[in-house]
Automatic annotation (TrEMBL):
It is found in: Cell membrane. This is ABC transporter permease. The keyword Cell membrane applies. The chain crosses the membrane at residues 26-48, 98-126, 138-157, 163-181, 227-254, 274-296. It comes from the Bacteria.
Length: 310
């Protein structure tokens, strides 16, 4: 195992992708920032001074304390507190973890649905291809936010706010994931249409391999480059969608806030002087989305030789 790991590391260090990565300072800087944010979010219980989801440790008398660099700041709360007395730094760590979890899981669901549908449409063609692509066209005619707002609002009205808050994380992942699968399906279909005409696919058919094996073992690996690029961008889009839904009151509950829920909760205090409750989580969200998009641009340029310029 150790020798295999060393071999993989050696191959990675000598690859063209790694060489281009080292040369791109923006990609390196974005990777460092993203890695730092992900590490802090995953290890939130270690770095956070309190668990903001534990109501027993909160004190309402500590509400709306400004950041430590202001006159009325408290050294216990570096970034201040929100309207419920939660340490904002701790809440941001936990909120970032939820935003990343929703973003990554929603993209995994998008990818699973889109890749499956795109493979089937491109490989088998004919009426199945026409039907699946018309479904994708219909899906694309509706924006993600519109679909999510309608579905979540109906669910909340039908089953009640309490049940919705218990299932909010799951519901957001499903809604955002289902709403965006056509991006993958159309991209994978286009790649499959090009790949299935090549000789290695004909050779696999002659050898008697089944359709599923040909699609998964032979065609799919050759379509991964555009999938990786789309996935990087879609994680950022999913995080933005979740933040927007939370801001509209259709996201995570107040007791388990994501970055979007934090921004929403503090917005009503913004003009009363407690600007940090909204501004600091908003800045964190902007940085998170920005570094993910910058990495997506880098991957698009490197993995597509036609776009890359020295």
């Amino acid at each position: 195992m150790m020798s295999q790991a060393k071999s993989l590391i050696k191959r990675w260090a000598g690859s063209e992708f790694y060489w281009q990565f080292k040369k791109d300072k923006v990609a390196v800087f974005s990777s460092v920032i993203l890695l730092l944010m992900v590490t802090l979010a995953i290890c939130a219980p270690i770095f956070a001074s309190q668990n903001p989801y534990d109501q027993t440790v909160l004190d309402i008398m500590d509400s709306e304390i400004p950041p430590v660099w202001q006159e009325e700041g408290d050294e216990r709360f570096v970034l201040g507190t929100d309207d419920q007395g939660r340490d904002l730094f701790s809440t941001i760590l936990y909120g970032t973890r939820i935003s990343l979890l929703i973003g990554v899981c929603a993209v995994l669901l998008q990818a699973f649905l889109g890749i499956t549908i795109g493979l089937a449409a491109g490989y088998f063609g004919g009426r199945l291809d026409s039907f699946l692509m018309r479904v994708a066209d219909i899906q694309l005619s509706f924006s993600t936010m519109m679909v999510a707002i309608i579905f979540l609002a109906i669910f909340q009205a039908a089953f009640g706010t309490e049940l919705y808050q218990q299932l909010a994380l799951f519901m957001l992942i499903v809604v955002i994931g289902v709403a965006e699968w056509p991006q993958y399906a159309r991209t994978v279909r286009a790649s499959v249409l090009a790949e299935k005409q090549k000789e290695y696919v004909d050779a696999a058919r002659v050898m008697g391999f089944g359709h599923v094996r040909i699609m998964l073992r032979h065609i799919l690996p050759n379509t991964l480059s555009p999938i990786l690029v789309i996935s990087t961008v879609q994680v950022a889009n999913a995080i933005i969608s979740e933040a927007a839904l939370s801001f509209l009151g259709l996201g995570m509950p107040v007791t388990q806030p994501s970055l979007g829920a934090l921004i929403s909760a503090g917005f009503e205090y913004f003009f009363s002087g407690s600007w940090w409750i909204t501004a600091i989580p908003g800045l964190v969200l902007i940085i998170l989305v920005l570094v993910i998009n910058l990495l997506g641009d880098f991957m698009r340029d490197v993995l597509n030789p036609k776009l890359y310029k020295d």
